[in-house]
Design goal:
single chain; alpha+beta; two-stranded parallel sheet; 2 strands
Amino acid sequence: MIRSLETLGILSLFDTLVCAGDYARAKPAPDPFLLAAKRLGVDPKNCLVFEDADIGIQSATAAGMASVRILQPNERLVSHSS
């Protein structure tokens, strides 16, 4: 993940990163999102999560956070105008 953010030139835009090795229970447990909120000093109820998977939405909900589901490219409707 860090390499991707560096390649895109946006790593400096993030105050913290939470990676799989940082928490004990994986999604759908709320652990990843609760850890991120704790590191940022933000109450979970004041967080908005952008997720591309249902399991991530479940995790955010379990953490007491609002969430927005981002569709994968293959899930998006393609409109063709004639």
